[in-house]
Amino acid sequence: MSSATIRHLAEVNKELWLLLSLFAIAAVLNFLVAAHGVVLGFYTLPTVFSAYFYGRRHATLTAFASIFLVMLVVHFNDSLFSGVAAVPAPQQKWFEITVWGGILVLTGYAMGSLYERKENYVRELRETYHGILLILRQFISKDKYTLNHSYRVSVYATKIGAYVGLGSERIEDVRAAALLHDIGKLDISREILYKAARLTEQEFNQIQQHVDRGIHMLEPVGGSLRRILPIILAHHDKFDGSGYNPKTGEQIPLAARISAAVPPGVSRVCVFVNASPETILKIAAEARLDIAQLHGDEPPAIFAALGKLRTWKVFRVGADFDAGAAARYHCEAFFLDTATETAYGGSGETFAWERALEVKQHGRVILAGGLDGSNVGGAIAQVSPYGVDASSRIESEPGRKHPAKVRASLDAA
Fold it and tell me: Fewer CB within 10 A of the terminal residue: the chain, N end or C end?
């Protein structure tokens, strides 16, 4: 075996080699001290594993616990650790236990120190990695749309990854790939990216090049970012093979399929009920909300206090509903739900949609209340709203959407 091969094997995992050497030394010492001393090897295992998985403090405490346990066993079983001529009885067994206990404590302390040093290195690497992601995000931030889109994709993609049972490392890869998947657009002309008219074939080809350009930007970084390159490379691939690359189905990395499942128009909306402007703005900043949906009895002044934050005002439509009240509110849209006596919404019942036409005179309307695949098409045909909200009627149980009902509602809409 060549020296290069030996060095490679030694560098594979030094901690595992250390464990192997400890067991080898323990076997030799047990053989030289006493035949019965091999029993001590079994009491060493908890300390070694404690050091490897939990650290110095845990390992040292485990070592003392093992010593105490061995002393109890020897105290109640005098036949152990006898027969060594080098040390006269009865001090012989306590001599062996003292030597073994000292080595055990030193071993636990040293192994635990190695563990904590490794954890510190890993923590520093992780902080460096997150720092690189932050720096790259700052580069992307000069394109406001790309930043917000990439951030939203990262949030939703990680939630999807957790839901389907991905491990923490793969979820982190999904998050990083989602944040950086459009970094190649930094090298694309702003005129093409912001062009409102239909792109020419040549311009579309340039847009497609942002995937390869992003890979070229990230490839020299190496490390953890190298793992996400296949995800970024495949984020415009489609299950049926009609994407940028001819890959289909399972040929596309799972993380890329998850990221691609988040459409670019997804917005983060949070529902508030009679919250103060300070609370709304604080949560909107922390959660990077796109829209605040005010579902309580908020007066018009609150909307003015929210500044540039996009807002939806919810009206609960009942027998005494005054559509003219919408004129006093300045917001992006009016969200109309069915009034109930016991809650601020979620009744699953419809209201007279002609009332929405009255509110529509004052601004955009979003219809809610008892919508599903059986009636959403008629509601859209009658009101032509800015949007629709379907919730309780398309659930299999509270808080969980039924896939078939969701598909039926989308098809009807």
Answer: N
Compute the C-alpha angle 69/33/25, nearest 5°.
85
Quote the CA–CA distance of 107 and 85 in Å, as a whole number: 27
Q: How far is CA 34 from the centre of its chain?
A: 54
SS3 of residue 268 by DSSP? coil
CA distance 258 to 263: 11
3-state secondary structure of 292: strand
* DSSP assignments along 352-398, one per residue: -THHHHHHGGGS-EEE-SS--TTTHHHHHHHH--SEE---GGGEEET
pLDDT digits (tens, 9 = 90+) for 28-60: 544 544 445 555 666 676 777 777 777 788 778
Q: DSSP assignment, residue 148?
A: H
- Going by the DSSP 8-state scheme, the letter that residue 78 receives in this structure is T
Its pTM surpasses 0.85: no
- List 336's β-bridge partners, or say none: 315, 367
CA atoms of 237 and 247, how far apart (whole Å): 7
pLDDT category at 99 given cuts 50, 70, 90 is: confident
CA dist 232 and 179 (Å) reads 10
Contacts for 316-321: CB closer than 8 Å, 24+ residues apart? 316/340, 316/344, 316/345, 317/351, 317/352, 317/355, 317/356, 317/369, 318/351, 321/355
Residue 18 near residue 114, CB atoms below 8 Å: yes
H or E element, residue 313: strand 310-317
Tokens of 374: 């059986």
Residues paired with 333 in a beta bridge: 312
Beta bridge partners of 116: none
Residues 390, 393, 395, 401, Cα dihedral to 10°: -20
| In contact, 40 and 100? CB cutoff 8 Å | yes
In eight-state DSSP terms, residue 167 is -
In this structure, how many other beta carbons lie within 10 angstroms of the beta carbon of residue 412?
Answer: 18
